[in-house]
C-alpha cells in the first residue's frame, strides 16, 4: 500500500505531521497494522522475531547446562 515508508518513522515525534503518515496512523488505529504492506520494516520485524527465537533457544540451553552442573555438584555429596 505505502511502500518505502519505514515502520519506525511512524513512532517518531513528527509522525502525523505530514499527510501520508497521518493517513497511515489513522489506518493503523482503525484496522491494525496488517493492512499496510511494509517494505523494509518487514525484514526488521522478521529479524526481531528471529532474535527472540534465538534468545529463547539460548535460555533453554542455559537452563539445561545449569541442571547438569547441579547434578555434578551433588554427585560427590559435597556442595561446592
Q: Could you give a short description of this structure?
A:
It contains 2 helices and no strands. It is mostly helical.
Per the principal axes of the C-alpha atoms, what is the gross shape?
A: rod-shaped
- The first-to-last residue Cα distance is 62 Å
- Mean of residue pLDDT values: 66
Structural class: mainly alpha
How many discrete domains? 2
Share of residues in strands: under 5%
SSE order, as H and E?
HH
Radius of gyration (Å): 23 Å
In percent, how helical is the residue content? 55-70%
Largest sheet: none
What count of helical segments does DSSP give?
2
**What is the strand tally?**
0
Uncertain segments are none
Structural descriptors:
80 residues, mainly alpha, 2 domains, rod-shaped
Overview of the molecule:
Helices cover 60% and strands 0% of the residues. The model has no long low-confidence stretch (mean pLDDT 66). It is mainly α. It is rod-shaped, with a radius of gyration of 23 Å. It starts with 18 loop residues before the first helix and ends in a 5-residue tail after the last helix. The chain is built from two helices and no strands. The protein has two domains: 39 residues, no CATH class; 40 residues.
Amino acid at each position: 500500500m505505502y511502500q518505502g515508508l519505514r515502520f519506525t518513522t511512524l513512532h517518531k515525534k513528527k509522525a502525523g505531521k505530514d499527510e501520508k503518515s497521518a493517513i497511515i496512523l489513522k489506518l493503523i488505529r482503525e484496522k491494525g497494522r496488517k493492512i499496510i504492506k511494509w517494505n523494509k520494516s518487514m525484514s526488521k520485524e522478521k529479524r526481531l522475531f528471529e532474535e527472540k527465537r534465538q534468545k529463547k533457544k539460548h535460555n533453554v540451553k542455559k537452563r539445561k547446562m545449569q541442571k547438569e552442573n547441579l547434578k555434578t555438584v551433588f554427585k560427590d555429596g559435597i556442595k561446592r
